[in-house]
Structure formats: structure tokens, C-alpha cells
Design goal:
It is a single chain. This protein has 395 residues and is α+β, with helices and mostly antiparallel strands. The chain folds into 3 domains: 13-81 and 157-261, no CATH class; 88-121, no CATH class; 264-340 and 358-393, no CATH class. It is built from 11 helices and 14 strands. It has helices spanning 52-65, 159-173, 190-195, 217-226, 232-245, 263-280, 284-296, 308-318, 322-335, 374-378, 381-393, and strands at residues 13-17, 25-29, 40-45, 72-76, 98-100, 103-105, 147-150, 155-157, 177-183, 200-205, 253-259, 305-307, 341-347, 358-360. Helix 7 runs antiparallel to helix 8. The longest helix is centred in the last third of the chain and has 18 residues, at 263-280. The termini are far apart.
Length: 395
């Protein structure tokens, strides 16, 4: 960020919470050149990044002290898509007690009064956690779940809280933010975008995990400083381009920009598809075509997340059920053809069938937290998943 710094009508402010007892939270007004220490504004002492108030206060502070025509707010840390489960995979093994929102998750006494049963906590794959801005303090036990993890407080912002943050911000500002950036893993999902539909005009993020380098802030900010009059849509597309250009094909990266205002249209199309699927699953031909389409769809680090368009387009072509065929086409149309996804790209064969938005599509078990999301309350997708998972269990 300092390679560019605040200039030409572009103000860059940041809040950074370091791990450890001496790692206090500092705010910065990023200037070009000089030492970073010279850019420090208030030192906030120790804060809990997982507390919604911390992010809310920062955004409102930035808007008050550095008013602008347009606002880009970037949350930079771990990410996990919609999945809000508080999982510290090695807690039991290393006998560590962890708290979450005032509740104890005991490493030695699961199930006791005041604890969360370990059975409710999902296990995590042993694959290397790549997007790790905060070096975890519990032996890499912190999995990529939700966003804005705080390793000292053992806390994070879940998607319900993230909605609360931006609802408060938009109410105080009297307007939506222009862009929400998710410099974190797995965040560009239908469910996440729908949760934030009233918070901003656009959202930029990744379907897949991000490598440790994250966004190329120097390239992004240099382009913005060179033309600060860019529209929010143009900035969103530019971020996608700069991100992809900064990586090699072997890094297997994705990035996309979405028009969040079109989330309701996408949700309506998915609702129609879910209803058609529930109705059509009485046919063995539909079952076989569905299972095949799901198994072949582009999936990501979390295998329950699949690219929505890469599932719907082939499935629509393979099924003979007219209602499902029409519903699949409607979903794809809501994403493309002047739809919700305004820019999408990828590098690497492992993610070559990525189109910009993923969706939760488990085959064995549905998280009990899924039903809490706005998207699930508004559509029949959750009801479809129950039927599908039940069907798969009987095979």
C-alpha cells in the first residue's frame, strides 16, 4: 500500500491487529514513502477482530475523517464462505480451552455445562491452510471458517455478524458502500452475497482459497490513483484483472466481481430450480443426471462448495426434464447476460471451470447452521438439499 500511498483524491486507511500480547491494534493513514511507523494514527490497544463493533467503528471512523464520493471496504484475513462454525480442529488433541462469544469450548471436557459439544464442530481437512494473514497461535488449528479471525481472542466474524456490521454502517452513512472487498478465501458464494445485498453495490472476492499474498494492493491502488474518477463497477473489474495478473497459472486462483443488487434475482432463479428438482427427483433418470452433474461440477478447497454455473449449465443440457431444463437456464441467465457476475476470471487447470459464484452443495451432511442464512430462509435450496442428502444416504 505504501508503494502508492494516499494521493490524487484517493485516501488509504487501514486497521491492523497483530497477534500477541504486544501486538496492539493500530490505525494508519497510508502515505507514499517514509516509514510505516510515521503513518500511525491512534493506537487502539488490544481489540477483538471478531467483535462486530471493531469493524463497524473502523469503517465509520474512516468515512468521518476521510469523507469520499466512493468507499471500498476490504476485509483482509482468513475466509471460509458462508460456513460459520467455530472450529479449532486440534483443541481436543492439544487440550486447549477456547472461548467463542462468551461460551467455552473445552479441549478436555466437551459436553460439560457451558461447553459446546465437540460433535457439533466440523472436522477440517489436513490440507495446508493458505490464506493465513494472522499466524495462528494454536499450532495451525485455526481453520478457514467465516472471516476476520482473531487468534488472541479465539473469535471471528460470522456472516450474521458481517451483515450486522454493514447494516449499521449503511444506516449511519445513509447510503450503501460502493464495494466490499473480500481478501480472503472462498467468500464469493451466493449465500454470502445475498447476506450482504443491502450493504454495497458490488462485491469482489474469490471462489477458491487465496494464496498467502492475497490482493496486489500496489497494482490496484496505482490504477485507482491514476484514475480516481473510475466508477465503482470499473474499479471492481479492475481489481479482478490486477489480482489475476499477479499470479501464475500454477497458483490455481479465482477472482470475480458481482453486482450485489442482483442477488434477489439469482435467489429467485435458484428457488425455481430447487422446486423443480424436488418435484423431479421422483424420476430415476433425473436422479442419475443430477448425481452426475453434481459430481462433475467445479468444486473447491471446501468440496461442498461448487461453481453454480458449472453445475447448472451441463445439468440443463443433460436432463430431459423440461421444467428442470428451463430452471437451469434461468439460473445461468441470472448470473450472466448482464446478470449478477460482472467480471470473472481464473488461472490454473484445477479451477478452469470457475465462473464467479459458488453455492453450498453437500452430499453427505448439511450443517445445522445453514438454515440461519437469509438465502436459505428465502429460497427452497435448503429444502432441496435435505431431499438430496437423504437420497444419497439411501443409495
Amino acid at each position: 500500500m505504501k508503494k502508492v500511498g494516499s494521493k490524487n483524491g484517493v485516501n488509504i486507511v487501514a486497521q491492523f491487529d497483530r497477534i500477541g500480547e504486544k501486538g496492539t491494534t493500530k490505525r494508519y493513514f497510508i502515505r507514499p514513502g517514509g516509514e510505516l511507523a510515521e503513518d500511525v494514527l491512534p493506537d487502539l490497544g488490544e481489540t477483538n477482530t471478531g467483535d462486530p463493533k471493531v469493524l463497524t467503528d473502523f469503517i465509520l471512523w474512516g468515512a468521518k475523517n476521510y469523507p469520499a464520493d466512493h468507499y471500498l471496504a476490504v476485509v483482509w484475513n482468513h475466509g471460509a464462505g458462508w460456513d460459520d462454525e467455530n472450529v479449532y480442529r486440534l483443541a481436543r488433541r492439544i487440550k486447549m480451552d477456547i472461548s467463542r462469544k462468551g461460551r467455552s469450548i473445552s479441549g478436555t471436557n466437551f459436553g460439560a455445562k457451558g461447553t459446546i459439544p465437540f460433535g457439533l464442530m466440523r472436522s477440517v481437512t489436513s490440507r495446508r491452510m493458505r490464506r493465513a494473514v494472522f499466524d495462528t497461535s494454536i499450532k495451525k488449528a485455526l481453520t478457514t471458517r467465516a472471516i476476520a479471525f482473531d487468534d488472541d481472542a479465539r473469535d471471528f466474524l460470522d456472516n450474521i455478524e458481517l451483515k450486522k456490521v454493514f447494516s449499521t454502517v449503511t444506516a449511519k452513512l445513509g447510503r450503501k458502500l460502493d464495494i466490499i472487498g473480500m481478501d480472503a478465501c472462498l467468500m464469493n458464494m451466493v449465500e454470502v452475497q445475498y447476506q450482504l445485498k443491502d450493504a454495497a453495490l458490488f462485491c469482489v472476492g474469490s471462489e477458491e482459497v487465496e494464496p498467502g499474498d492475497g490482493w496486489p494492493y500496489d497494482a490496484v491502488l496505482a490504477a485507482l490513483a491514476a484514475k480516481p474518477s473510475m466508477t465503482p463497477e470499473a474499479v471492481s473489474k479492475m481489481i479482478v484483472d490486477k489480482y489475476l495478473k499477479s499470479y501464475k497459472a500454477s497458483d490455481s486462483v479465482t477472482q470475480s466481481a458481482c453486482d450485489i443488487a442482483k442477488s434477489p434475482q439469482v435467489a429467485a432463479a435458484i428457488d425455481g430450480l430447487a422446486k423443480a428438482l424436488i418435484s423431479g427427483l421422483s424420476s430415476s433418470a433425473v436422479k442419475m443426471a443430477l448425481i452426475q452433474a453434481r459430481s462433475q461440477a467445479q468444486a473447491y478447497y471446501t468440496p461442498e462448495y461448487v461453481d453454480l454455473a458449472d453445475f447448472c449449465a451441463p445439468f440443463g443440457l443433460s436432463t430431459t426434464n423440461k421444467e428442470i431444463k428451463v430452471a437451469c437456464a434461468a439460473v445461468v441467465d441470472s448470473l450472466t447476460n448482464n446478470g449478477m457476475i460482472i467480471k470473472s476470471g481464473h488461472k490454473g487447470d484445477a479451477v478452469k471451470n470457475s465462473h464467479g459464484l459458488s453455492i453450498y452443495f453437500p452430499t453427505k451432511k448439511i450443517s445445522p447452521l445453514y438454515a440461519k442464512l437469509d438465502f436459505v430462509k428465502k429460497t427452497k435450496w435448503g429444502a432441496f438439499l435435505k431431499v438430496y442428502v437423504g437420497m444419497m444416504g439411501k443409495r
